[in-house]
Amino acid sequence: MRFMSIVTSAQSGPPTPELLEAMHKLANREIQAGRMIDSGGLEPLALGARVSVVDGKVSVVDGPFVEAKEVIGGYAIFEFRNKEEAVASAVEFMQLHKDLMPGWEGVCEVRGFAGFAGQ
């Protein structure tokens, strides 16, 4: 099954060099094992845009978005046997944040792909 892990946080800023190195090691391990399909960090909100439908009208608003309380910082797409493996991977990733970026708080949401053709 394919799963996406999405990391959100109210805190912004780049990871510490130690966390960045640990994340690269973890990603390389998962790529070599054939589990990680894709991953990436996202640019700041100021460089993005939101396209929405409100009251029957489509509108585009360029960032930054002052009302944003949590920001998606990055994502990863994995191939795992089941949800338990996906959650274990997210726990390991978030443990790196806890250990190497003291004071950082965030969430890693784990979601399976619905209707994925490879399932």
Q: How would you characterize the overall build of this protein?
A:
With 119 residues, this protein is α+β, with helices and mostly antiparallel strands. It has a single domain (2-112), classed as Dimeric alpha+beta barrel (Alpha-Beta Plaits). It has two helices and six strands, in the order βαββββαβ. The chain has helices at 17-32, 83-100, and strands at residues 2-9, 36-41, 49-54, 57-62, 71-79, 107-112. It has a four-stranded antiparallel sheet with strand order 2-5-1-6. It is globular. The model has no long low-confidence stretch (mean pLDDT 91).
Could you list some keywords that capture this structure?
119 residues; alpha+beta; 4-stranded antiparallel sheet; Alpha-Beta Plaits; globular
Order of adjacent strands in the largest pleated sheet? 2-5-1-6
- What string, H for helix and E for strand, traces the elements in order? EHEEEEHE
| Biggest sheet details | 4 strands, antiparallel
Q: N- to C-terminal separation?
A: 6 Å
Strand pairing plus helix content: what structural class? alpha+beta
Would you summarize the structure shown here?
With 119 residues, this protein is an alpha+beta fold. It has a single domain (2-112), classed as Alpha-Beta Plaits.
What is the strand and helix layout of this fold?
Elements: E1 2-9, H1 17-32, E2 36-41, E3 49-54, E4 57-62, E5 71-79, H2 83-100, E6 107-112
Antiparallel strand pairs: 1-5, 1-6, 2-5, 3-4
